[in-house]
Design brief:
Shape: rod-shaped
Number of strands: 0
Radius of gyration: 37 Å
Order of helices and strands: HHHH
Number of helices: 4
Helix content: over 70%
Largest sheet: none
Distance between the termini: 95 Å
Number of domains: 2
Structural class: mainly alpha
Length: 113
């Protein structure tokens, strides 16, 4: 009984490998495999390059979102500067060191000792 099972296993096992080997060494299978390797690694639009491009697109989209946020903040700043004269004076004094005619400005440099 066991010998019959072993014989059947050896027979089916060897047939399976012969069919697989015939399929692997078929000229069409080899051609398709070479073509896929070429497309994957050596073509102008290969998979590695596509992955790098996706990464670049993702980083550029994040940068674009930051630029949109900066634009929105700048618009709010411009709106506030055009409508609020006290804020305009504050920005002019702090950022551009502007003063009125009857005022003096003293600048202090804080150096770490």
């Amino acid at each position: 009984m066991w010998s019959v099972d072993i014989q059947f296993y050896k027979m089916t096992h060897s047939r399976f490998f012969s069919v697989v080997l015939k399929f692997i060494f078929n000229k069409y299978t080899i051609t398709i495999a070479v073509f896929l390797v070429f497309l994957t690694f050596f073509d102008d639009r290969n998979l590695l390059r596509k992955q790098a491009m996706k990464q670049e697109i993702k980083s550029l989209e994040m940068e674009l979102a930051q630029f949109h946020e900066n634009i929105e903040r700048s618009r709010e700043e411009v709106k506030r500067l055009t409508t609020d004269s006290l804020y305009l004076e504050k920005v002019a004094r702090e950022k551009y060191l502007m003063k009125r005619d009857n005022e003096d400005i003293f600048l202090f440099n804080e150096t770490a000792q």
